Amino acid sequence: MQYLQQELKRLGYDLTADGRMGQATLRAARQAMKSVGIDSASLFIPLSVISWIPAPSTVFRSCDTTLGASVAAGDKLATLGSGGQSITVKDLPSDLVSGSRIVRLGHLDIPVDANGKSVAPIPELDPSALAPASDGANATDKPISATLSLAKPIDVSSAPPSAIFDLNGPHGCVMSNGKLISVRVVGSQLGQAFIDFGQTPVPRKVELHPNSQTRCH
User: pTM higher than 0.70, yes or no?
Assistant: First the structure.
């Protein structure tokens, strides 16, 4: 009952998905049936008019009945694909730049939430994208070779760490031609800091050793 209520709510009907049959649920079910031409005068919700699928949209591997054929309750209509899969990024770094992220797996770009879990079922996961297990692990335990990235890339510039001062977390300042410019440090590598100037135009040069007593916050 609760699954039916959740689906009716998704379709826009006003009811509470509490798992109990009430007037609001019956009224919503009648309206839903009426919208697709099914007699809704009954005081019950016939099981025969409900077809369950694992998600609001799903992939069918095959259709097992023909258009216009007569079917009865329990008859097989179609075979579903391998819908409902999900991925989770293990050991997600704690210092990631804020923003929506995707996991790129083969040809797929899979949106993930702040915890690194895919936000929607993955209809089909290409087995060729899976990394082979070298230790005899089960298929469900195999690691996957993938790339975690921002859904929308940002432009960053590089500067020596000495050019950045008055750091407060990732936020700090640089000095260019005597002008303070707020920046956000997004990473570092091989003696270079990668900084985001936000909406401020990127200066041509910055001071390498600004006055350490200067404050920008």
Answer: no
